[in-house]
Amino acid sequence: MVGQTPGAGLHNDGVTDLDALTLKGPPEFTIRRASIEDAPGIVAVLQHVTAERVYSAIDRAWTVDEQRLYIESRSVREATYVAVDRSGQVVGYQCLDLHAPLLTTMAHVGELGTWLKSEWRRRGVGHALFRETAAFARSNGYRKLVIQVRASNTAGRSFYAGLGFVECGRLTRQVVIDGQEDDEIIMEFFL
């Protein structure tokens, strides 16, 4: 089980002190870079999240073939990390994409997305994914990450705020799922 060490928290640079997490027994999950072989597991996670109809602006999961094409199409500066449980099942993932691939003036900005199966939330998985993604981003010249979070997704907004993201804008009535409108909150993080 992953547990928080007393006094662990944010450093001045906004990065959570993930090294302060302590493990008791073997880890429940591992984090690694995704490959096309992970496409079925990634799709299963996204199917789980989109079925909840609450946490994402995405209303349907891609097919396995679409996910494979997406993974193959990534530039060397883009990455997906997966969280895998002891049995090898993908339980969550995080993507880093270029914010504006055709604009060199924004080459330092990345877009982030995080998806976790509900039973793996609040267990350190999102933090561990972010640690790997942020390290990759820093080593690939990113200086800023942005995320759009549905306004009604207070748990997601709290998660990102805990990582050091700050709200910097709102897109009004940006998402319509099942006939219900929702705003998206733009949050940013400087590496």
Strand order of the largest sheet: 3-4-5-6-7-9-8
Sequence of secondary-structure elements: EEEHHEEEHEHEE
How much of the residues is beta strand, in percent? 25-35%
- Say which CATH homologous superfamily is assigned: Gcn5-related N-acetyltransferase (GNAT)
> What Rg, in angstroms, do the CA atoms define?
16 Å
Domain module tally: 1
Work out the number of β strands.
Answer: 9
| Overall CATH class | Alpha Beta
Give the class from helix and strand content and strand pairing: alpha+beta
CATH architectural arrangement: 3-Layer(aba) Sandwich
Characterize the largest beta sheet: strand count, sense, and whether it forms a barrel.
Answer: 7 strands, mixed
Helix % is: 25-40%
Contiguous uncertain segments of 5+ residues:
1-23
Question: What is the arithmetic mean of pLDDT?
Answer: 88
The N- and C-terminal alpha carbons lie at a distance of 29 Å
Shape summary: globular
The DSSP helix count reads 4
CATH topology: Aminopeptidase
Give an overview of the whole structure.
It is a single chain. The protein is of the alpha+beta class and 191 residues long. It has a single domain (2-143), classed as 3-Layer(aba) Sandwich (Aminopeptidase), CATH 3.40.630. 26% of the residues lie in helices and 33% in strands. It is built from 4 helices and 9 strands. It has helices at 39-52, 64-73, 125-139, 154-163, and strands spanning 2-3, 22-23, 29-33, 79-85, 90-98, 109-116, 144-150, 166-177, 180-190. The strands form 2 sheets. It has a 7-stranded mixed sheet with strand order 3-4-5-6-7-9-8, with helices on both faces. Strand 6, helix 3 and strand 7 (144-150) form a beta-alpha-beta unit. Helix 1 crosses helix 2. The two termini are 29 Å apart. 28% of the residues are buried.
